[in-house]
Amino acid sequence: MLHLYDDRPIIACSTGLQSNSAIGLIRISGFSDLSIFQDFFKIDLANVKARYSHFTSIIDGDITLDEIVLTFYSAPNSYNGENILELGVHGNQINIQRIISLFINSKLVRAAKEGEFSYRALKNKKLTLSQVEGLDLLLNANSSFMLDQGLQVLSGDLHKQYLSLHDSFLKLKSSVEISIDFSEDVGEEQCAILLKESLLEFSSRVTSLWRRVQSDRSDLANPSVSLVGQTNAGKSTLFNYLLANDRSIVSDQAGTTRDYVSEYLTISGNTYRLVDTAGLRETEDNIEKIGIDRAIEISSNSFFKILVVNPLQTNFEDYKSLQDESFDLLIISHFDQLKDFSGDEFLSKLPSSKVSIAAELSMNTTSFKVLQDGSIGPNLESGSMGAEDLEASGSIGPSSVNGPMGANSSQPGSIGADKSGSIGPLITYIEGLISHKFNDLCSDNPLLIGRHRECINNIYLSLQEFQSLTENVEDIAIISSELNILEAKVSELLGIVSPDDVLNNIFTNFCIGK
Ligand SMILES: Nc1nc2c(c(=O)[nH]1)N(C=O)[C@@H](CNc1ccc(C(=O)N[C@@H](CCC(=O)O)C(=O)O)cc1)CN2
Ligand SMILES: Nc1nc2c(ncn2[C@@H]2O[C@H](COP(=O)(O)OP(=O)(O)OP(=O)(O)O)[C@@H](O)[C@H]2O)c(=O)[nH]1
Ligand SMILES: [Mg+2]
């Protein structure tokens, strides 16, 4: 276990051990006096000023090993609160290894374990546990979104929110203690009021964090946009238009797409995985069934769900497996071929969707119609609509669209020039909906880390327990002991107490040298 390691001075390369680079940074941390390393440097270490860079040579006896830049950070004013010596050496891996071996062989230092520099920062209160977790996100991020998430957690804002939760817990605790110790002085009624007020404040903080946990947005780390629907609905057609690339096979043969096809799509700087799936239908073909099962699963796990429906070939039975699903967008395709379309009734038989659009999925269309928008309620003309309606109104399409943000507010996506084709406005509109949802969810930053979500859930459950006790139990001693359970859980969220396995999980995720 990491935390059981001794606190001897440690050394590691902090700039990676995979490949050669121009410069490598070696860090030594936790020594009591810089002078113990005098033998290895040409410069007189007594003349080294903290936080100044010094150009010097590393020596092994008479041999000069490298010309380096040396920086000393004097405890406690360093990254982890210990004395730190940083050596900027030439970044050849053999060179780096040779210098590290020189120090380790001297027995003055030992090789650091994964994350050990940062572990010491935590121990010395230079970083809080959630900041360390932010570092973990940052160092292991594979997208600019996750990098920003990590930086935000590292900045300590999240920890400040947890601190106010802790503060309001302490108020609650002291109101219980007052009830036990001073109820005669303060008066029972006054005690009850105090308890009620502090419980209310704590509970509202817990509830708002808990709500954040409930809106599960772990999918934001790797958001996918899925297209599902019956065979021949036009999923692959729309997929190709969104990508501006004929990636998926389109044909008038039902069952063309037999397994999912996915490609990355960038909209307003965010990357989504766009997935075209096998069409839903009754089938005896086992392989096709597997494809359909996958389609349903992909849809249920995706961040933005699009259902494509061809009203000319609709079998409502096929939607049974999607009946519990709520879609972000419904596209009624083949609008060009519709003579008679009873919108309201038709929509009511489909799975629910926030926004519904009727469109012709072809290069020749500029018009589409927003039938319904989640934020403004049904917007469907009663009676029937047909292609004539679309043509007659002429301007139907982006300018007449009153969707959640209007087509104009959406940023141009990566498709660029190709979108100048006439289907462009529809694609831009769909991209706008996707971006809008993403930005909306991201505004409640930062994402909660898995461990925090778990802690918050535990606090919430324990609080429920506590609340019912205060309502039903007279004995303040019982209430007080339940409060201790709650306290342990709040402390765990803040990292005031951290079970060993929690620390171990976090730090073994770090690289050596961090
Ligand atoms: N050369 C170098 N670059 C680096 C790091 C490092 O350790 N060394 N970092 C490692 O992750 C990151 C920067 N993080 C750091 C955080 C705190 C301190 C530090 O010296 N803190 C002191 C003084 C603060 C101040 O002067 O405001 C302190 O907290 O007392 C240094 C780097 C990225 N770049
Ligand atoms: N007239 C018209 N044809 C369309 C429209 N949308 C798609 N099509 C045509 O309908 C046929 C089926 O389209 P696809 O995109 O392959 O349908 P799919 O949903 O991927 O079908 P599967 O892969 O079989 O599940 C193709 O011939 C398309 O050209 C539309 O809005 N109007
Ligand atoms: Mg297809």
UniProtKB/TrEMBL annotation:
Positions of the UniProt region annotated as Disordered: 382-417
Domain of life where this protein originates: Bacteria
Positions that bind Mg(2+): S236, T257
According to its record, what are the GO cellular component terms? Answer: cytosol
Copy out the cofactor comment: Binds 1 potassium ion per subunit.
Report residues binding (6S)-5-formyl-5,6,7,8-tetrahydrofolate: R27, E86, K126, K514
Q: What PANTHER family does the annotation carry? A: TRNA MODIFICATION GTPASE GTPBP3, TRNA MODIFICATION GTPASE GTPBP3, MITOCHONDRIAL
Gene name?
A: mnmE
Q: Which Pfam families match?
A: MMR_HSR1, MnmE_helical, TrmE_N
Q: What does this protein do?
A: Exhibits a very high intrinsic GTPase hydrolysis rate. Involved in the addition of a carboxymethylaminomethyl (cmnm) group at the wobble position (U34) of certain tRNAs, forming tRNA-cmnm(5)s(2)U34.
HAMAP family referenced in this protein's UniProt entry, alphabetically: GTPase_MnmE
Upper lineage is: Bacteria, Pseudomonadati, Bdellovibrionota, Bacteriovoracia, Bacteriovoracales
Catalytic class of the enzyme: hydrolase
Which processes are annotated in GO (biological process)? tRNA methylation; tRNA wobble uridine modification
Q: Where is the GTP-binding protein TrmE N-terminal domain?
A: 10-126
Q: Name one GO molecular function term.
A: GTP binding
Native organism: Halobacteriovorax marinus (strain ATCC BAA-682 / DSM 15412 / SJ)
Keywords for the protein's UniProt record, in alphabetical order: Cytoplasm, GTP-binding, Hydrolase, Magnesium, Metal-binding, Nucleotide-binding, Potassium, tRNA processing
Q: What is this protein called?
A: tRNA modification GTPase MnmE
Q: What is its EC number?
A: 3.6.-.-
Protein localization? Cytoplasm
